[in-house]
Write a structure and sequence with these properties.
By secondary structure, the protein is of the alpha+beta class. Among the domains are: 145 residues, Herpes Virus-1, CATH 3.30.40; 127 residues, Herpes Virus-1; 157 residues, Cysteine proteinases (Cathepsin B, Chain A, Alpha-Beta Complex). Helices cover 26% and strands 19% of the residues. It is built from 22 helices and 26 strands. Strands 13, 17, 21, 22, 23, 24, 25 and 26 form an 8-stranded mixed sheet that branches. Strand 22 and strand 23 form a beta hairpin. Helix 11 packs antiparallel against helix 12. It is globular, with a radius of gyration of 30 Å. The N and C termini lie far apart (63 Å). 33% of the residues are buried.
Length: 796
């Protein structure tokens, strides 16, 4: 106890605003279950692995820690036959509370042990002990009782959501019209009023009609009678019969809002049709359960996870898995891929110690520190060791938990702060944006991806040309389904499938025939000459047409190719193309190389200061209608410009044809006037707010321009770019080299939508393919290269 006396003045009791990091070390992935446990400072409440305690003590002088150690003990569990089989309740694969494809494992209980550690010699004093000074007793007790920093952040991020999946309260719930038809709904025996379907039935809460739901992509489901009824009547809310429970839970769909919703007055709305919640039992699968079932009916899941055979697990440096934190597989796959790139390893892993030592604030809130922690955790091998002798053969390796990293990089982001599944491509771009904001005064490892695109326009009225350039970090390719090399087989399969559906049968998933496309066809479509209407030609000072060709002006060290599989059908239903694209291991992209201005070409004249600049006119009523449908404003402007404000229908048709364009939502400048793309128009409401903080007009405009008029990001940008406020930003630099590449990684997506399903990544390591399926890392026996979504090619 005497050791404590000289340090009591620095011991503090955490308040409600303090963050207590008691789940994991802020610099490593050591936690209470690690062999050496976790040390929590009684001064700053940061958690530290044993390797960092001594350095922290010498840097801060804080000497007193709570040592936390959690021991796991196996307990007996009842046999599988002692109770009903656990039903699937969540879509998430292999996460806590989610679908576990390998049930029946051993169960464990945990025992927590605590000690007080006093530095510098790691003197351990058992806890509890009533003889501890009062300040130590209060500090430790409060630390143990408080929610951890991670749990607090998670609860804040999930506020207003259920299970990480936000369901809005329907705008129709409060004043829903319910007709007095005298109809009463029986407790069972339901049949669609327009066909003989007895499953997937929906009760319309306005008129009491019972109708079947949508037809699923495998031919099962309903005959679309419920949605057709909405189209005819406009009655918006329907509840899925068989999903209603005593506690008022149910699948409720709003056709006008096109989403599953909450209805706080469901009890009253059901009572109108004679339904008593107290008597209800769930008898049908929810929409989430059906989505899971449908996903697993295809052989896509088995192929991408290589689950048909027993894969050989791998351990050691570079073979560390990542825990799935509830649909975080998109994050796991992207970060595993990034830390195979030498620039990322050099910046964050090789310099991890310097990054930690230079961190002056909270390490858990420092982007570079958390990148270094993640990279070191993945590549050190410290958290990837073979299970001890005698362990169950099916025991999963623990992997590392990127909870602190996910909390930081998702903070304030509408999508990445939630537990909902996200698009891996969008997350990749989000990480690059964070890298740009956090490496302004040092080398940016994401420069490995950056390349320059050349766009050549040729005016059809004058034959004069114009060249423009833009930067990009991934090559997004549309997939020409008409270019399938096995069209006859696909046609035969579709006919067979239609015949089976007509007979109420379902084909064997293993008999699936996917359209097969060669990557060459996708690249050919990318380089194809495009006709641009409404092109303003400075040669004739009026609108005409132009021919546009796109090429790569530079070739990066690493080229990330995105196959644009997520699109929309003509009826506006989001779909994923079920297609196999033949991706070569060796790729020569020289046909994509830009040539620049050619001899004999005549340049389109620059737009003079006194030249008449046509000001685009947009029908604001159509703009509003399109934006209410969820389309970005710039996309709406494009649609109206190219359809000359003709009608909402023509604008919608244009959007459907161009929704996968890479610049779909980018700031719009009429073709031919790209020279003026720097004439940024700032958000006039945000401008005075930023200037009111003491910044000049030009500084506020620059901040808004660099953040696409996002006021919150603009303020953050100002404080992190003080040295740039009054200096022009340097032109981006592009690496360039040979156009020959080899495939080194690919990320695959399983499921019908980017917002559900599962991601895995295959990485070429030491000449062999390795599958990273969250915390499972194994030697790949049959990498499904043709089913990927994102492909990483390295310059040879």
């Amino acid at each position: 106890m005497d050791l404590l006396q000289g340090h009591l003045t620095k011991v503090k009791v955490p308040s409600t605003i303090d963050k207590v990091y008691k789940d994991e070390c802020v610099y490593s992935f050591d936690n209470p279950e690690s062999e050496t446990g976790l040390f929590v400072s009684l001064t700053t409440f940061v958690g530290l692995g044993k390797d960092y305690v001594e350095k922290y003590f010498h840097k801060t002088g804080n000497a007193v820690f709570l040592h936390m150690r959690r021991e796991r003990h196996e307990v007996s569990s009842p046999s599988q036959g002692d109770g009903p089989e656990k039903k699937i309740t969540r879509l998430a694969i292999g996460v806590e509370g989610g679908f576990d494809p390998e049930s029946g494992r051993k169960k464990f209980e945990f025992e927590d042990k605590y000690q007080i550690c006093v530095m510098p010699n790691f003197v351990m004093i058992p806890w509890p002990n009533p003889n501890f000074p009062e300040i130590v007793l209060q500090s430790v007790q409060t630390i143990l009782e408080m929610q951890s920093a991670f749990k607090k952040a998670e609860l804040e991020a999930l506020a207003g959501t259920w299970d990480g999946e936000a369901r809005i309260i329907s705008k129709h719930a409060e004043n829903l019209e319910q007709l007095n038809t005298g109809k009463k709904i029986p407790p069972s025996g339901w049949v669609c009023e327009k066909c003989d379907k007895t499953e997937n039935l929906w009760l319309n809460l306005t008129d009491g009609s019972i109708l079947c739901g949508r037809k699923f992509y495998d031919g099962t489901g309903g005959n679309n009678h419920a949605v057709e009824h909405y189209d005819q009547t406009g009655h918006p809310l329907a509840v899925k019969l068989g999903t209603i429970t005593k506690d008022g839970k149910a699948d409720i769909f709003s056709y006008s809002e096109d989403d599953l919703v909450e209805d706080p007055k469901l009890n009253d709305h059901l009572a109108h049709w004679g339904i008593n919640l107290a008597n209800m039992e769930k008898t049908e699968k929810s929409m989430i359960e059906l989505e899971l079932e449908l996903n697993q009916k295809t052989n896509e899941w088995a192929a991408m996870q290589e689950s048909e055979g027993k894969l050989t697990p791998l351990f050691g440096p570079g073979y560390t898995g990542m825990v799935n934190l509830g649909n975080s597989c998109y994050l796991n796959s992207v970060m595993q891929m990034m830390f195979t790139i030498p620039n990322f390893v050099a910046k964050y892993v090789n310099n991890a110690q310097q990054i930690f030592e230079s961190c002056s604030g909270d390490p858990a809130e420092d982007f570079n520190a958390q990148m270094a922690k993640l990279g070191a955790g993945l590549l050190s091998g410290r958290y990837s060791v073979p299970p001890p002798a005698g362990s169950p053969v099916d025991a999963d390796p623990p992997g590392i938990s990127p909870a602190m990293f996910k909390s930081l990089i998702g903070k304030g982001h509408a999508d990445f702060s939630t537990k909902k599944q996200q698009d891996a491509q969008e997350f990749f771009l989000h990480i690059l944006n964070l890298l740009e904001r956090n490496t302004r005064n040092s080398s940016n490892p994401s420069d490995s991806f950056k390349f320059k695109i050349e766009e050549r326009y040729q005016c059809t009225s004058s034959d004069k040309v114009k060249y423009t350039h833009r930067a990009d970090t991934l090559l997004a390719l549309n997939i020409p389904m008409e270019a399938a090399v096995n069209r006859e087989e696909v046609t035969a399969y579709e006919a067979k499938k239609a015949e089976a559906e007509a007979q109420g049968k379902r084909l064997d998933p293993n008999a699936l025939v996917r359209p097969r496309i060669k990557l060459f066809s996708c690249l050919e479509l990318f380089t194809q000459t495009e006709t641009i209407n409404q092109f303003f030609s400075t040669a004739i000072n009026e609108k005409t047409t132009a021919r546009k060709t796109t090429r790569l002006a530079t070739f990066p060290d690493y080229l990330l190719i995105q196959l644009k599989k997520f699109t929309m059908r003509e009826d506006w239903v989001p779909i994923k193309l079920d297609v196999a694209v033949e991706m070569p291991d060796i790729l020569d992209l020289n046909p994509l190389r830009a040539t620049g201005p050619q001899p004999g070409e005549e340049k389109l004249p620059d737009l003079g200061e006194n030249s008449p600049v046509p000001e685009p006119v947009y029908d604001q009523n159509i703009i509003s209608e399109l934006m209410n449908m969820g389309f970005p404003q710039n996309a709406c402007k494009r649609a109206l410009y190219f359809t000359q404000n003709s009608s909402l229908e023509f604008a919608m048709a244009w959007i459907m044809d161009h929704i996968s364009d890479s610049d779909f939502a980018d700031p719009f400048m009429p073709p031919g006037l790209e020279k003026h793309s720097d004439d940024f128009v700032p958000n006039m409401e945000a401008l005075p707010m930023i200037m009111g903080m003491g910044f000049t007009h030009s500084q506020a405009v620059k901040a808004l321009k660099n953040t696409n008029n996002d006021i919150e990001r603009a303020v953050d940008w100002i404080f992190s770019h003080q040295d740039e406020l009054d200096n022009p930003a340097p032109a981006p630099e592009f690496k360039d080299g040979d156009s020959n590449y080899k495939l080194v990684a690919f990320i695959s997506h399983m499921g019908t939508s980017s917002m559900v399903g599962h991601y895995v990544v295959h990485i070429l390591k030491e000449g062999r393919w390795v599958i990273f399926n969250d915390n499972k890392v194994a030697l790949s026996e049959n990498p499904p290269k043709e089913l990927g979504y994102l492909y990483l090619y390295e310059r040879m």
